[in-house]
Amino acid sequence: MSETRALVEIDSVSKRFTPSVSLGERVAAWLGSPIDTRTVHAVDAVSFDIRNGEVLGLVGESGCGKSTLGRVIAGIHPPSNGSAMIDGLAVMGSGSKPLKTTTRIQMVFQDPFASLDPRVRIGETISEGPLAHHLVSKVDARAYVTRWLLAVGLPAEAADRFPHQFSGGQRQRVAIARALAMQPDVLVCDEPVASLDVSIQAQIINLFLKLRRELGLTMLFISHDLGVVRHISDRVAIMYLGRIVELGPTPAIFANPRHPYTRALLDSVPKLVTGSDELVTFKPIQGELPSPLSPPSGCHFHLRCPFVQARCSTEPPQLDGRHHAVSCHFPLSDGE
């Protein structure tokens, strides 16, 4: 896609979680039991932008910090350091309070069975936020809900039903309608099709593409499914243990990955041999993802990297490059 302005700007965002100590744990500590106060380093100094009208895919293994980063961008978690901005305005205010700008960024969660209140009718679920933010009056609320239900392919009568009366795919459509009813500029989609059947996944992906065309939405699409990300994204960011290790146009990432982790991630996906029913022997990534409680020094990937050198274990690489950026001291070239 052509170069456009940055709508969302993420500047050196880090997010750490340190468990609070309860009174019972303090008493136990007084009696000699240890207290676990280790800090989880979920996101580590991440910087990138999302351009107006684009879909940016965010990919990585489970536990790499993708969902946490999405929640920081959506204003659900305050960053420990750095800032998330939309149109130059902070998403989170002082004291970790969301600002009015957060209505411009809405989130669609992975599990539609958990993200909808089972005791609340769908119409109320969709209208609650717009009513609270004065986007619609009580008089017009029913028609407003109908508008968004139809936009996601559900009938107007769905407003009177409860979540348990819908299938998984229909519930995810409700969740999308709820997000759209806030009239956002940006949707943060956190594994929105991971819990759905493959046939339903395709329908929801096509719905996202349709809504993007019709509403001009900007999206951060978080997924571990490389095929889905390749289909829907304009650019892709590869995340490993809290850091962005590669960022670039989707065709370049898939055709010419420059970070060893990106190459390993692509090689770990089984592929069909042309004209055969046999699967190519895929190459799983060697080693285990290190714990975010104690991330390794230097490049976080150096413990699993087949190209590791001495510098990699001591000096953290920086994300470098304008159109196709890579965070690696020894990036791969074509054909490697």
Describe it for me?
The protein is an alpha/beta fold and 336 residues long. It contains nine helices and eleven strands. The strands form two sheets. A seven-stranded mixed β-sheet has the order 6-7-8-3-9-10-11, with helices on both faces. The protein has a four-stranded antiparallel β-sheet with strand order 2-1-4-5, with helices on one face. Strand 4 (81-86) and strand 5 (89-90) form a beta hairpin. It starts with 5 loop residues before the first strand and ends in a 10-residue tail after the last strand. 38% of the residues are buried.
Write the layout of secondary structure elements.
Blueprint: E1 6-17, H1 23-30, E2 40-51, E3 55-59, H2 66-73, E4 81-86, E5 89-90, E6 105-108, H3 122-132, H4 141-151, H5 168-180, E7 186-190, H6 198-215, E8 218-223, H7 226-232, E9 235-240, E10 243-249, H8 250-255, H9 260-267, E11 325-326
Parallel strand pairs: 3-8, 3-9, 6-7, 7-8
Antiparallel strand pairs: 1-2, 1-4, 4-5, 9-10, 10-11
Helix pairs in contact: 3-4, 3-5, 4-5
Features:
alpha/beta; globular; 336 residues; 7-stranded mixed β-sheet; 4-stranded antiparallel β-sheet
